[in-house]
Predict the structure.
Amino acid sequence: MGKISLVIDRQKVEVEAGTTILEAAAGAGVTIPTLCYLKGINEVGACRICVVEVAGRKEFVTACDTPAEDGMKVLTNTPAVRAARRVTLEMILSDHPLECLTCLRNGNCELQALAAQLNVREVRMRGATHADLPPDDSTPAIWRDPRKCIVCRRCESVCNDVQGVGAIDLQGRGFDAFIGPPANLRLDETKCVQCGQCALVCPTAAITERDETDIVWEALLDPQKFVVVQTAPATRVTIGDMFGLPPGTPVTGKMVAALRRLGFDAVFDTDFTADLTIIEEASELIKRLTEGGVLPQLTSCSPGWIKYAEHFYPELLPHVSSCKSPQQMFGAIAKTYFAEKTGRDPASIFVVSVMPCTAKKFEAARPEMDAARRYWDNPRISRDVDVVLTSRELGRMIRQAGIDFAILPDDEYDEPLGVSTGAAAIFGATGGVMEAALRTAYEVVTGKTLEQVGFEEVRGLEGVKEAVVPLNGVNLKVMVVHGLRNARHVMERLKAGELKDYHFIEIMCCPGGCIGGGGQPIPTDMEVRQNRIEGLYRVDAAMKYRKSHENPAVDKLYEEFLGKPLGHRSHELLHTRYLPRP
């Protein structure tokens, strides 16, 4: 498009034509404050915090959605601009409950930070607040507090434009405006998939995860409970964000040490059952390939994606793998195999998950996720996974306990449910499930050793990736998809019969995969996602075992308990079915 030059705060700046004033200023080392802005997602100038002066124009312009022009002269920090931003912020605060000290986002709230940045020390006006709007606590995963909504429209943009779900939208006008489901519906009465991407971008606490830390604290103090915890693959490169470490820093050992200090009786790794998932899922794929099952097979480890498929594409559910997610496999194995192996009463085992995902809370609460209760025929046994904590919730618990995370020594997971491989670690990145499955499927089918374990074609943040893998005379056609808007395009193609020659498709609900899950530390943007993905591949490269079928503890699980992949006991504990949702 060519270069243009402009002057920002008396500095000459050269940028590509089409660049916004906000981006041009950032390139010149000038930070213009924003509140509603999300790069590439929500660039609507709704909050008007980013106003600047432009020579020759009578009114201020919003920097986030105004293109820079050749010869333009911009001032970003004049007394008039600062006054305008403060007045705008005071008007927003006039309609906001001033509950900072007791708010879940206290210390990590963009509205709070902006008030400090703009030196707003009093709110000189009071508007008509949303005090009469009750919280929406209708789902297991998401908590909405409309009183704290500042109508920035970020959540609306993410839900509609990134995820393509459309569960929330602008409701009301003026001071009565807020973002929520239409017609005064609750979230559980919509097609909300509970992915939490709305909570990830909300600048306040208008949308958050349902906090269940108090339930876990209570369980840890109960002498009748044997409390075990499992940690998802992605958490090992994200928990450090909560304590000031660079995004993507592997902190597995410190996380294990922190969990021990919190009082958990055993610290296990969801990666163990990620390896187990690969064995079952690869076996299922091979069976479909050799016996004529429904193809392509779609992955099933992302609960937001599963709920989306149940709502929007119920006729395509036969394509979805019957494998439970690693989280749910772990819960079932902990309360059967582990209970039997250690001689514990399965009803006393309390399973806590640490997950990057809010939808995991919904998944754990699904009524069919009670395999252990059915296995033992014991009504005293609760559901397979008792509580799901997001990465953010665990971070808060560590802070509550006064643990200095950054200086903790590295500790090791407990055995046997803490042994894992590099293939399981990369589950947290888009393409990771596919790559892990290919590593195992190749060796199982061909009987040959896979020397080069990396499948670069399925890595990266491109929304849809494809590859062809030669497999014993069959060219295995695979696809990797992340983000539900991208999933919609692929499902429409599948529905139209355009993907008949594909064999395996990985679909992850959240952009970037689990490293960008709705329960991850805030902020999470595409740069942060990329850093976290690179961190997971570093973890993978450092592992002793890098293929799921090499996990000796999983081999022993089959030998001692499960028998064989896709066997009777495996189907009973590790597989499930999905049903259309109205």
Q: What stands out?
A: The mean pLDDT is 96.
